[in-house]
Design goal:
homodimer, about 350 residues, alpha/beta, six-stranded parallel beta sheet, DNA-binding
DNA sequence: GTGAAAGCGCTAACAC
DNA sequence: GTGTTAGCGCTTTCAC
């Protein structure tokens, strides 16, 4: 019922054309004014900006990204939103804004079947033009990605590529296990992480190595799959604690697993650390707020997010040295570890 | 050094043009084939799809969204990635994929100054054409947003608009406080949430109401700001616990605050719940894995994320009844509450 | 069944 | 200083 000219084309959407019309200038002039290019008269600039303000106009990320070569947006692709990836996100957010990038988080939401290769699909869609570069958290496949610069955090086995960030999983696992040995534990179990990730394998290796160095024979029944997840690890712990010769300590591959172990131990009526010592890995925030607070290997998760952004930023600026980064993990002894019961 | 025609234009980027060239058809034909439109010969279809597969082509979300009216992408805008918003994210992810939408999470990363109004800016940039609709978590301003359909979760005070999802904060707070009263507590403190959010105000009101109904006089010194945050709430708790007549129980406005309170209590050498009872609100995952597990009001966070997506989906399909949704909160008694010490 | 032409909102050359 | 022209990758009429 209303004429085509007395309202914006697309209802509710303010475009650069609307601004231009109201300011009485051409579209390119508005573009220049907004982007601070030279060649706009002060009076025009002022007028345009006031109209922009009035209309609440913001340039569409989509349209500009299609035209520009760089969009100033970084993408971070995660399989799932859990404490680990969320901590990375926080760091990445901070670093991005400091570096002048916007940040887009994209969860593949792949339930079941297509869980493998999610990052490839997501990347193709976004890398079109939306994001300049991407940070991929715990990717599943070793597909060589070439479309845009990519930094991987905790990569898949086989992806020892240069633009990766890893913590010192092997060394950390050694330290964790050694800590338990030093306390007097001899029967130490391990809850394994996600089998396809390098980190999980290295943590298991470090655990074994520490045992062997101490002259302890690793027992196959003492290693269970936790998949880096709470529930699965709780289940694994329940199994471990009902063994005939049950372990007095557990090194869990990450904090979520450790918290799962703690929960399972409690359900069986055990007290941590009196009856069972537990060490985690990561130092997610929840590790500090559990009771007892978790003894764990501190990974500077937010710092890793920051580093990833810096690496990506360097990559985008044409710098070549994407040296793989390894961050050392530091043991923090909190309340979940103590000498084994039989030494009391 | 290499000729301009023996490689794709933009290095590393596979476009629809590349597919068309390799398949020996025109660009529109490829488009039709990909999108399953009628009017493509079976042989052509097969050939095109095989090239698509070979090249690993995925249609650019950006380019297609610019042309299409609907993009099939939902945006979820959060101020920060913390357990609360992350749980919502999970639910939203699931629901989106079930409804056939992709999901984009966007964190405003506004540190300091421009924290107010972050959602407006983000929305303008994305609403351009990238996303069909948005879910905004705990927005800060009451700006009327008209560009695209929006659903708000836990809105700002004054935003009693229709497309909002709230939990029954008032009722929940009453129940939480009543639970403590029933246990025999008489000196009950409250750690307040983010002052500008309706939920925070209602929880404080519910707390007061329950006290008054029980004939207890609310004490001003017993209410402190926690800002829905761990650290700030720990600080507030430290203050509360050093009062001359210190409270025997705390109702915290959310779980992060409750966990902060628990941490502070421990640092002062108190045992929860023997020396201090604590009730939270939300039931974030960490509430279950803390020791003792937190007594709290269960909000189905993932369910809220799901509902938000459904509301948004309805809105996008032109349905009108965006009735404000209120979800009731249910008390779950875990290990952080007990009768006050003087009743032992 | 297929391709040529137009255009989404915007920015980058280049005229004027 | 400013506007005209062209084009990013894609989808959509509409001829052929």
């Amino acid at each position: 019922m209303s004429g085509p000219s007395d309202q914006p084309h697309s209802p509710g959407r303010v475009t650069i054309g609307d601004v231009a019309r109201l300011a009485g200038v051409s579209i390119p002039t508005v573009s220049k004014a907004i982007n601070g290019r030279y060649g706009v008269a002060p009076a025009t600039l002022k007028r345009v900006l006031s109209v922009v303000d009035e209309l609440g106009y913001e340039t569409s990320i989509v349209a500009s990204s299609l035209r520009r070569q760089r969009t100033n947006v970084l993408g971070i692709l995660v399989a799932e939103f859990e404490p680990f990836s969320v901590e990375l996100l926080k760091g990445a957010s901070t670093a991005s804004s400091e570096k002048g990038y916007e940040l887009l988080a994209y969860s593949s939401l792949s339930r079941g079947k297509s869980a493998i290769g999610w990052e490839r699909r997501s990347l193709s869609r976004l890398a079109g033009t939306l994001i300049d570069g991407a940070i991929i958290v715990t990717p599943t496949v070793l597909a060589p990605i070439e479309s845009i610069p990519v930094v991987m955090i905790d990569p898949h086995t086989g992806q020892e590529g240069s633009a990766t960030i890893n913590s010192d999983s092997f060394g950390g696992a050694q330290i964790a296990t050694q800590h338990l040995i030093d306390l007097g534990h001899r029967n130490i179990a391990h809850i394994r992480g996600r089998g396809d990730l390098i980190s999980a394998r290295l943590r298991e290796d470090g655990y074994r190595d520490a045992l062997l160095r101490a002259g302890l024979q690793p027992r196959p029944e003492n290693v269970r799959d936790g998949g880096y997840q709470f529930r699965q690890s709780a289940q694994a712990t329940q199994e471990l604690l009902t063994l005939t010769d049950r372990p007095t300590a557990i090194f869990a591959a990450n904090d979520m697993s450790a918290l799962g172990a703690m929960s399972a131990a409690q359900e069986l009526g055990l007290t941590v650390p009196r009856d069972l010592s537990i060490v985690g890995f990561d130092d997610i925030p929840e590790a500090r707020s559990s009771t007892p607070p978790l003894t764990t290997l501190v990974q500077p998760l937010q710092e890793i997010g920051v580093r990833a952004v810096h690496m990506l930023s360097d990559l985008l600026e044409g710098e070549d040295p994407p040296q793989p980064t390894y961050l050392s993990a530091r043991l923090v002894v909190r309340g979940s570890t103590a000498p084994p019961p039989d030494l009391y």
